[in-house]
Design goal:
The protein is α/β, with parallel strands linked by helices. It contains 6 helices and 7 strands, in the order H-H-E-H-E-H-E-E-E-H-E-H-E. Helix content is 44%, strand content 17%. The relative contact order is 0.18.
């Protein structure tokens, strides 16, 4: 094992810092569902519009990542924006979160994306364009 990695794993202060930040800026589908029930959050689907039209998380709005900076008027700095994309390997969500943070919006990323919402947790989706 790499000695630097081994040293980091034994450093509980750095682990505490890492996991605190991770918990502050990411959440899973169950936490997202809980946040949505309480209100005060905006859920944004940054996948392609065509994929959103096929199915999306109830209450989510479609703002494809490449159009995010042109649609900031759909968001509020008074609520947390929760971003999701396709899956765990997709970096559209991370990129979108970075864009929003650069503009001063409170933001979180739902880890696992739409794939985890649908296939792992089997939560409801909205199919088609209307809600």
């Amino acid at each position: 094992m790499n000695e630097k990695i081994k040293e980091l794993r034994l450093n509980t202060e750095k682990a505490q810092c890492f996991f605190s930040k991770r918990l502050a800026y990411t959440l899973g589908p169950v936490e997202l569902k809980n946040f949505m029930e309480k209100g005060g959050v905006r859920v944004v689907d940054v996948r392609a519009e065509a994929d959103y039209q096929i199915a999306h998380i109830p209450g989510a709005v479609s703002i494809p990542k490449d159009e995010l900076d042109k649609n900031l008027d759909k968001l509020s700095k008074d609520e947390v924006t929760i971003i999701y994309c396709y899956n765990q390997q997709c970096h559209l969500g991370d990129s979108a979160c970075l864009i929003l943070a650069d503009y001063g919006y409170p933001v979180m990323l739902m880890e696992g994306g739409f794939d985890v919402w649908v296939n792992d947790f089997r939560f409801a989706t909205v199919e088609g364009a209307g809600e």
